Amino acid sequence: MSNTDFWNSRYAEPGFAYGTEPNAFLVAQKKFLRPGMTALAVADGEGRNGVWLAQQGLDVLSVDASEVGLRKARELAAERGVRLHTEQAELMTWSWPVAAYDVVVSIFVHFPPDVRARLHRAMVSALKPGGVLILEAFTPEQLRYQSGGPPVRELLYTPDMLKADFGVGEGASAGEVLQLEECVAELAEGKYHHGPGAVVRLVLRRQ
What would the pLDDT profile of 163-187 be if each residue is shown by its tens digit? Predict the structure, then answer.
């Protein structure tokens, strides 16, 4: 089964796989958001995060490989009374925008090792100077839990991995790390993210 077929199948299930409420870590970064900003929601699935961003007054593009998920995202946006732009695309071959967004959001998006660094750099490049990236993902410690995420170590992220991918740290100048932490968070995101989860969280401002 291809990646797109997998997500189409999951999003074709009744209800919303990860619920309709936004990710808690994203909501905690509301201080970085202002009405009129532009936002890119990466692999936004059924739209819970993109719709919430639109509810904050942002102009949002939700991009995902699954047309089934994006259709539900548009329905959720209509139900909430906001406008959401959507684009169906395979992120590995997508023509990523450059210096186009004030905010890029990546919530539980896990790329294979051979493309991970390239796509993470593409997220930074999509930001305008001074723009903010907000990311949450599972760490290898998540393999100890039963609360969701890829059951494959190679698809899980560590803080050092993210620093290398995003070009930050000693001698690097891609961006300023505003927050980078590992923790165990209590997840309540639909039936597929439920219970304690080992996560890494990053907020990065592009230089």
Answer: 999 988 655 567 899 999 999 999 9
3-state secondary structure of 66: coil
Which CA distances in Å does 146 have to 10, 35, 165, 179, 198?
18, 37, 27, 26, 10
E strand intervals along the chain: 38-42, 59-64, 85-88, 101-107, 127-138, 175-189, 193-206
150: its two tokens: 């890829």
* Number of other residues whose CB lies within 10 A of the CB of residue 139: 20
Sorted by sequence, the CB contacts under 8 Å of residue 18 that are 6+ apart come out as 45, 46, 48, 189, 190, 192, 193
- The domains of the chain, with CATH numbers, are 3-206 (3.40.50.150)
